Automatic annotation (TrEMBL), chain A:
Its main location: membrane. Residues 69-285 form the ABC transmembrane type-1 domain. The chain crosses the membrane at residues 9-31, 73-95, 107-127, 162-183, 218-238, 264-285. Belongs to the binding-protein-dependent transport system permease family. It is a multi-pass membrane protein. One of its GO terms (cellular component) is plasma membrane. It is found in: Cell membrane. This is Sugar ABC transporter permease. GO terms for biological process: transmembrane transport.
Automatic annotation (TrEMBL), chain B:
It is found in: Cell membrane. The keyword Membrane applies. Residues 74-267 form the ABC transmembrane type-1 domain. This is Carbohydrate ABC transporter permease. It comes from the Bacteria. The lineage of its organism: Bacteria, Bacillati, Bacillota, Bacilli, Bacillales.
Length: 297, 281
């Protein structure tokens, strides 16, 4: 009796503070966010007007939301392709190929991942700066006239220009994941392949790739989720969604609606859209990628 | 491995790609260093890749450190990061220990509840969080930031620590019980020390995220003397653009990169472990 009472106290002391914390600062804000999406509220008053699904109706008609969703998926698609391609090449290079300085590359390529997104955004703004920027000065070396493109200032170049820093900042993290996956492949598989006279490329296709595919799937899902949930921070630092809302993504539009224009209810509705789309996308992708492995096997 | 034939052309291509990417990663840092030592004339008239001219403008650093309040941004960031790391380590280690070592009703559910929070876009909760902190009187307060960052660091910490505690052998724990130690005592003096390396990985990973965090910091604090480093930097770069203070801006960027770079180099092994531990979802 006494023993079990003491055990209960132990559980309570070890579990409850954490759970309480989690409820107050994580669960409550999310549920409250969903609830807010049914209200019209500027945040300034105590009074909130219940308007049912009006925010959702407005959202479906809002052309900027359309742009934002398209931009988000533009980033998702090209980040997945760019990051996975380069991270795979680099991971294979530092594990399976006899390149010199393997460890150095592993250490160096992760550096962008430890730098704040604010610093990354500011640095890349100066790469793209029309007058002082690195890119235009470099391009001008090959042209008679000075290149003066405002990369972040033109609607058709702004979005692709945001893609490069996102890829640049992501490679190292996924490279480390893939390196770990490759290193866990039993070496006798490669020895057997060597005895069969399999070329490096052949070994990659029939040993490395199938055995790292599981980790690649995890990485792809991770890129998709973090992009939909968090890519807006870089966008906000670099363009604030401009020019003319052409680089708006869902998160930046939420931030602008909530903290610049004080449409708290509408901003919360965009938040629900992010939640639904990011869960739906990862769920569908998980299905698609699962089918892939069955076909490969 | 030595037997494998390597195509010399693909070998060359691999090297070129590796060197190009090395340049893409290292050069911006060098560029920032050079920029931080230049004056405006050099920015406007010389090529961006030109070396800084003598005398080097070290004043750019003292300028941002003193006049722009980098001193206080640094102090705030250190307090917020250290506080959140300690609190979140304590809260996640205790829960992870129970979830990993004891069979309790609803333990699985609780575990997955914490995990699922890693998939939820935090920005959805940002608006309510602002008003919650406002009602608690914690807007524009360092403790407010610590509470929020601690909560955001819990799921990752619990996730990694559960798998860490699961991997520890049962014998040591049993020996402690036989010696008459209670659960809490066993946790504190036997299990926690064994989990040290896992705790360091979690602390470093969460610490880097918190040190670099911008959005919540910018929403929950709007007093310049309480800005964290990323928020201060973002505000400063807006002002400096209008005043064309390029040199000081680059000095500010460099100052904020240096601490994370040092932490990264020192704890490089733990960071690699933290990355792989966190992604085996």
């Amino acid at each position: 009796m006494k023993q079990s009472a003491r055990r209960r106290i132990f559980y309570a002391v070890f579990l409850l503070p954490t759970f309480l914390f989690f409820c107050v600062f994580t669960l409550y804000p999310i549920f409250r966010g969903v609830q807010l999406s049914f209200f019209d509220w500027s945040g300034g008053t105590k009074e909130m007007d219940f308007i049912g699904l009006d925010n959702y109706r407005e959202m479906l008609r809002d052309p900027i939301v359309g742009t934002a969703v398209a931009n988000d998926y533009f980033l998702v698609l090209f980040k997945v392709i760019g990051i996975m391609l380069l991270a795979t090449i680099f991971a294979v290079a530092v594990t399976r190929l006899n390149v010199r300085g393997k460890n150095l590359y592993r250490v160096l390529f992760f550096i962008p991942n430890v730098i704040s997104v604010v610093v990354i955004g500011v640095l890349w703004r100066y790469v793209y700066n029309p007058n002082l920027g690195f890119l235009n000065s470099f391009l001008s070396l090959f042209t008679a006239e000075r290149v003066q493109t405002a990369w972040l200032g033109e609607p058709h170049t702004a979005m692709p220009s945001l893609l490069w820093p996102s890829i640049w900042a992501g490679i190292g993290f996924y490279m480390i994941l893939l390196v770990a996956a490759i290193l866990s492949i039993p070496s006798d598989l490669y020895e057997a392949a060597d005895l069969d006279g399999a070329s490096q490329w052949r070994q990659f296709l029939s040993v490395t790739l199938p055995l790292m595919w599981e980790q690649m799937k995890v990485s792809i899902l991770h890129i998709v989720m973090t992009t939909l949930n968090g890519s807006f921070i870089l966008v906000w630092i670099m363009t604030e969604g401009g020019p003319d809302n052409s680089t708006q993504v869902m998160g930046s539009y939420l931030y602008q609606m909530g903290f610049r224009q004080y449409h708290m209810g509408y901003a919360a509705t965009i938040g629900v859209l992010i939640l639904v789309l990011s869960l739906l996308t990862t769920l569908i992708l998980q299905r698609v990628l699962k089918r892939d492995t069955i076909e490969m096997a | 491995m030595m037997l494998t034939k390597q195509n010399p052309l693909s070998r060359l291509l691999t090297y070129i790609l590796l060197l190009l990417w090395t340049a893409a990663v290292v050069y911006p840092l060098v560029w920032t260093l050079f920029g931080s030592l230049k004056n405006n004339t050099q920015f406007m008239l010389k090529k961006p890749w030109a070396l800084p001219e003598f005398p080097l403008l070290w004043e750019n650093f003292t300028y941002v450190w003193q006049k722009y309040g980098f001193q206080s941004f640094f102090a705030n960031s250190i307090m917020v990061t250290a506080g959140s790391i300690l609190l979140s380590l304590f809260l996640s280690a205790t829960t992870a220990y129970v979830l990993a070592r004891f069979k309790i009703k609803g333990g699985q559910v609780l575990y997955y509840l914490y995990l699922s929070a890693m998939m939820i876009p935090m920005i959805l909760g940002l608006i309510p969080l602002f008003f919650l902190l406002n009602d608690m009187g914690l807007i524009n307060k360092i403790p407010g930031l610590i509470l929020v960052y601690t909560a955001s660091a819990l799921p990752f910490g619990i996730f990694v620590m559960v798998s860490f505690f699961k991997s520890l052998p049962k014998e040591l724990e049993e020996a402690a019980y036989i010696d008459g130690a209670g659960h809490a005592r066993t946790f504190w003096s036997v299990m926690l020390p064994l989990a040290r390396s896992g705790m360091i990985s979690v602390g470093i990973m969460n610490g880097l995220n918190i040190w670099n965090e911008y959005i919540m910091g910018s929403v929950l604090v709007n007093k310049p003397n309480l800005y964290t480093l990323p928020v201060g930097l973002a505000v400063m770069q807006n002002e400096m653009q209008y005043r064309t203070e390029w040199g000081p801006l680059f000095a500010g960027l460099l100052l904020s990169i240096l601490p994370v770079l040092i932490v990264y180099i020192v704890f490089q092994r733990h960071i690699a472990e933290g990355v792989t531990a966190g992604a085996v979802k």
